[in-house]
Amino acid sequence: MEANSTVVLIFHVVAGDMVKCLVGWRVRKRREWKKAVRVVREVEEECETSVERLRQVVDAMAVEMHAGLASEGGSKLKMLLTHVHNLPNGSERGTYYALDLEGTYFRVLRVHLNGQQSAILEHEVELQTIPQHLLTSTSKDFFDFIASSLKEFVEKEGDDSELSVARRKELGFTFSFPIKQISVCSGILITWTKGFSIVDMVGKDVPACLQEALVRKGLDLRVAALVNDTVGTLALGHYHDADTVAAIVIGTSTNACYLERTDAIIKCQGLLTTSRSMVVNMEWGNFWSSHLPRTSYDIDLNAESPNPNDQGFEKMISGMYLGDIVRRIILKMSLESDILGHISSKFSMPFILSTPMIAAMHEDDSPNLREVERILKDILEVPDVPLKVRKLMMKVCGIVTRRAARLAAAGIVGILKKIGRDGSGGITGGRRSDMKMRRTVVAIEGGLYSNYTLFREYLHEALHEILGEDIAKHVILKVTEDGSGIGTALLAASHSSNNVDRI
Ligand code: ADP
Ligand code: MG
């Protein structure tokens, strides 16, 4: 009897302890969960992009554009002159070439134009890698290599139309490095980026160096236009649709350009008398405004970047950075709570989480969020994350992406406002309901926009919210692929020396 009651007593004590333990564990778990949720809630509040706030960003963008056009260094927006006055309009004829030098590879293209705004442009492309040793060689060696490749490409004809025989061969050159443009076909290299260090090129006219190499190789090909990829995108958009007024690139980096009235470019009044309009390269990645919803994660990312205080807008919206903002939030969650178990060393590795990965997590439509689970396990090395926590991770991806897309939309409306295409009276005027809104096309390109469906949807939604349905229905965003190739060949056509009747 006695022994039995002892057993019962022991059982009660043990069971009681277990219950207490379980309750304690549950309380602790709930507390930890709440801490993690608090981190997410704070980010959500700090990333808030109400339509009122977006309209402030719109105004700031338009005002900064004005300031950047008024004087050199007047704004963080450089508002660079491209000297591109003639955008292709579909009437171009003949065969033109393009050289697209983006990074450690380049492409050469040949485009055949029949003068009828060809819906599908017949063209040929060749992709080539630049040998490593040339990245740090001399401008002569570098351009001799490029010129040889071009010569081989041009001589592998295909160019057999009568038009081409009579005309001089012309080339558009997409050069994705910082340059000071002097004319449509000349520009001085300011500095190299992306691993290039051809020291004797800095301060030289880049197309002139290419032209000299082409002469050395005995190739009769004139460099007719030097542009960046955004300008190529605008050209391609305009070729297909004359209502195209601006182009946006949202990929690894981000930029925008648009067609401006020459008399609004105050910083070079008097110099530009030949044409009524010019494409302006905004370099909008460097836009900044106190109205941008900035978090401690953005501040840290900026401080730890190789270019602190530059490219502030880009660091909030482009594909290079979104994954890393999410990683920083996850790190904070893991420091504040134990919902992810241990703190994986991967959380502290910059850029380990890429933007395509956060897109995959965010767009995971499997019932148990298997993709989120896979990325957490394989990339961040946190296995066995409960479903509830996986959902929270997905939410974080959504917050960061939504802010980016909505800010990009505000930037676009800022451009429309500057050129009086947002349905308001421009920078100074209020909203005018009586104004007739013209059909307005914005060419858009880049891996973030074209591959991340929810990013695209958030951007469109914000555009509609800011402009209102009546105005937004006149604004069309058109995906325009391969501006830096085909678009640039089209610019060679519209700036061709064969076009005596233009300007
Ligand atoms: P680049 O900007 O380097 O010229 P792209 O326009 O192709 O090249 O954009 C590539 C960038 O787009 C990637 O760095 C990435 O940030 C983003 N991206 C590509 N695919 C996806 C995807 N599926 N989801 C989200 N972002 C993506
Ligand atoms: Mg690109």
TrEMBL record:
Pfam families: Hexokinase_1, Hexokinase_2. The keyword RNA-binding does not apply. InterPro entries: ATPase_NBD, Hexokinase, Hexokinase_C, Hexokinase_N. Its main location: mitochondrion. Residues 40-239 form the Hexokinase N-terminal domain. Its EC number is 2.7.1.-. It is found in: Mitochondrion outer membrane. It comes from the Eukaryota. GO terms for biological process: glycolytic process; intracellular glucose homeostasis. Residues 246-493 form the Hexokinase C-terminal domain. It is a single-pass membrane protein. It is an enzyme of class 2 (transferase). One of its GO terms (cellular component) is cytosol. Pathway: Carbohydrate metabolism; hexose metabolism; Carbohydrate degradation; glycolysis; D-glyceraldehyde 3-phosphate and glycerone phosphate from D-glucose: step 1/4. Belongs to the hexokinase family. This is Phosphotransferase. It comes from Arachis duranensis (Wild peanut). The lineage of its organism: Eukaryota, Viridiplantae, Streptophyta, Embryophyta, Tracheophyta. The gene is LOC107477301.
